[in-house]
Amino acid sequence: MSEKEPFVIDFKKVFDDYMANNQKVWAHDRSTTIGASEAFNCMRQLLMEKRGSEFSVSPDEDYNERWGAIERGNLIENYFVVPAMQFLPKPLRAEFVGDDQHTHVLVRNSATPDGLLTEVPTDCEVIIKYGDDEFLIPQVPTGCIGLEIKSIDPRAHLDEERTKHMFQSQIGMGIIREITDWKPEYWIILYVDAAWLDNIRPFVVTYDPGIYAAAKKRANDIWRFENITDAMPEGKLDGGCKYCRWKRACGEAIVNEHASFSKKGPDPFLIAELDPIVRHAIQTKEAADTAAQEHEAAKQRVKDWLSENKHSKAGNENWSVSWSTSDGRPTLDKQALRDDGIDPEKYMRKGAPYDTLRIIKRT
Which pTM does this prediction carry? Predict the structure, then answer.
């Protein structure tokens, strides 16, 4: 047996290093604006992403940034969809695609559309279609339509465009309308199946100036906040905290602010102001509990039907259900470690600080 250390070929490191050294270099400094794809992310997350250094906070050390889906999208866009644009029906032209892709900047907002279809006929109906999917645009008076390209997991179910992508399209339209001669009123989102590239679904988004105005306000607010806690932790509302790389900084900001709070209760005038807010919180909690119980009961009825009819899945054009089993998650057996003479507490790591709010109904 050789005494030399084994020679390790770590392919994860190979690909991680490749990605780290082959990131696209943008002419625009993306830390100075809120991009169209992130404009409606959690406000507190955006604040720390853009101004974290000002508040002396850093991302979680153990956060693992996954790059697979992003690179998958880049490959499909650059080597499949963009080359296909040369076969658009005449007289259409594809602007801002491929090497000509451009970041449009307006104060604190920015957008990097995947393309803009120009020379669109203005004197007739325009039909956007792929296979059985078909969208009718009564007229395109401005002669242009935006384009967004998204790769999507083959297991995903799409009845309409994703809300996040609709918002992104609205911001793209808004910025281009403001700073260029183009005035798009429609935006096409092309979803390309990551497994079967010939499975493509188009959706058409119509411009909504209200959404664009909201995105501009959110972007401007990010640079008005004076403290991290000024920004609402919206990730707590939509579950985004689970995937956030700023969980520790966010928790610490809350705990640090909490340390300055008075331990005495407020005076009656302030209590009167707080009363309807707490009552509403209690009412919504009770409604949520009732809805959760009803939902669990409904799920059990579905399981009972599947069990009775000996099926693990079912579906039609409106819904699908599947019932599966999974092995239990592995956990650390602390007693086994102690039996082997190992103190598990020595290897325990303190988690990120967090806050707890308890509301008790008394009457």
Answer: 0.78
